[in-house]
């Protein structure tokens, strides 16, 4: 694996994120991964950040609330569709997603949370800020389109402490 700048593959990462990526969290010796399709890579507070969103109803939420880090592993070129589908539709409360999908957790380089083997791009992040969404500050059209059926997200801003690829 080769370390790369957080923004070297930003376009590819953003395009792939819309098709799914693995958000992995570890807390109290429990590890879970879930599929995310939303997120943002940027630069704030003088550092590169990856912002992820997790609904309070998700099992991952219980873990991330008890952690100070997370990883995002992104398969490029439409790889791992079945695994992303399973991890996005099944709960870690009921399934060991690693066993069910034959996923291999690789040790993080800078954080204790693992990354997912077989992905092309990995971001390791330390949480610097979190904020539950406030309905009063949300555009009504967005609220009606995305939050009519389920609860709101909490936003987690993680400093990208390392980024690396399997492609080089």
From TrEMBL:
<dbReference type="GO" id="GO:0010181">
    <property type="term" value="F:FMN binding"/>
</dbReference>
<protein>
    <submittedName>
        <fullName>Conserved protein of DIM6/NTAB family</fullName>
    </submittedName>
</protein>
<dbReference type="GO" id="GO:0016646">
    <property type="term" value="F:oxidoreductase activity, acting on the CH-NH group of donors, NAD or NADP as acceptor"/>
</dbReference>
<dbReference type="InterPro" id="IPR012349">
    <property type="entry name" value="Split_barrel_FMN-bd"/>
</dbReference>
<feature type="domain" description="Flavin reductase like">
    <location>
        <begin position="22"/>
        <end position="167"/>
    </location>
</feature>
<dbReference type="InterPro" id="IPR052174">
    <property type="entry name" value="Flavoredoxin"/>
</dbReference>
<comment type="similarity">
    <text>Belongs to the flavoredoxin family.</text>
</comment>
<dbReference type="InterPro" id="IPR002563">
    <property type="entry name" value="Flavin_Rdtase-like_dom"/>
</dbReference>
<dbReference type="Pfam" id="PF01613">
    <property type="entry name" value="Flavin_Reduct"/>
</dbReference>
């Amino acid at each position: 694996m080769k370390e790369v700048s957080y923004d070297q593959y930003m376009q590819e990462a953003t395009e792939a994120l819309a098709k799914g990526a693995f958000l992995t969290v570890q807390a109290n010796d429990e590890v879970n991964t879930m599929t995310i399709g939303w997120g943002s890579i940027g630069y704030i507070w003088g550092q590169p950040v990856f912002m992820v969103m997790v609904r309070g109803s998700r099992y991952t939420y219980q873990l991330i609330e008890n952690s100070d880090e997370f990883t995002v592993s992104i398969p490029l070129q439409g790889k791992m569709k079945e695994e992303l589908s399973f991890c996005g539709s099944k709960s870690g409360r009921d399934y060991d997603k690693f066993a069910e999908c034959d996923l291999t957790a690789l040790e993080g380089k800078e954080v204790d949370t693992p990354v997912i083997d077989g992905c092309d791009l990995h971001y390791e992040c330390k949480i610097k800020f979190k904020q539950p969404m406030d309905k009063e500050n949300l555009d009504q059209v967005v609220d009606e389109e995305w939050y009519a059926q389920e609860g709101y997200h909490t936003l987690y801003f993680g400093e990208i402490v390392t980024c690396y690829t399997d492609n080089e």
